[in-house]
From TrEMBL:
Pfam family, one: ARM_PUB
Entry keywords, A to Z: Repeat, Transferase, Ubl conjugation pathway
GO biological process assignments: protein ubiquitination
Stated name of the protein: RING-type E3 ubiquitin transferase
Role description: Functions as an E3 ubiquitin ligase.
Catalyzed reaction equations: S-ubiquitinyl-[E2 ubiquitin-conjugating enzyme]-L-cysteine + [acceptor protein]-L-lysine = [E2 ubiquitin-conjugating enzyme]-L-cysteine + N(6)-ubiquitinyl-[acceptor protein]-L-lysine
Amino acid sequence: MLIAKSQISCQQPYERMVHEIVSTPVLEVISDLTGIKAKVQKLVEDLRSDSLETLRTSTAELRLLTKIDANNWTVIADYGAISLLVNLLNSTDTKIQENAVTALVNLSIDNNCKTIIVQANAIEPLIHVLQTGSPEAKENSAATLGSLSVVDDNQVNIGRSGAIGPLVDLLKDGTPRGKRDAATALFNLSLLSENKPKIVEAGSIKHLVKLMDPATGMVEKAVTVLANLASTDEGRIEIVREGGIALLVDTIELGSARAKEYAAAALLWLCGITSRYCIMAIQEGAIPPLVALSQSGTARAKEKARALLTCFSRNKLTSH
């Protein structure tokens, strides 16, 4: 039985918030716009320096300016800092690279800055940081890619630039924050059909299934990606192979409202294709939590739960 795609629709890309991990040197907050412009102009000049110490200081101060006031983003962009920060992503100095990528992730919240970052050819340097940087730099690189990937065209460019494999590596081996940022980026990228097979082929599903363990604190992040990947043949096969059906049923029963919605969406993709997966879901105890979800979930969750129960009924499986 085929299920209409409208019954399994996904939500919008994740946006992100300003993302700081470690403390930075104290910098006096300059409220006067003229003062800010003068400060940024000097820092941009310093970004062209050959001195590592000057670059460490200037990138650290720009990093903090991007954090303390969103009004600074336009000034920083207008003075040409973004392209210089992108160039410094290739720095072999750990602190310079960390400061540059953290400044960029904060700037990337702004839509205009998103455009400038991409126009500065940042995607490949960000992937370089994702592959070779410190744990903090990798986290912020993934977060920047996640922020950029809320834009449809960027989903295409990032997916075609080789970012998916390193993001899956971070999903596997990263810090808890790195795994969350990788999952966010993969979710946004998985909204584009051409990226879904690439994400599956990169081995993401076994890691996503592991992150469905409530002890990881990442059930919601993981299941949103799985729901998108379940729309592909390859994704469904891998989800079942990795034992995902039982975890989807558990999430429908015990997860957050958002997690329940996406778990039901993923299960609907599986069960709408073959009765064999319906039987597996029922054997895992899917019917009681689906009945409960059909009555008390979000509007989308209710729709998906009812579609699943109808699927079971039409396959004459509700008493299996």
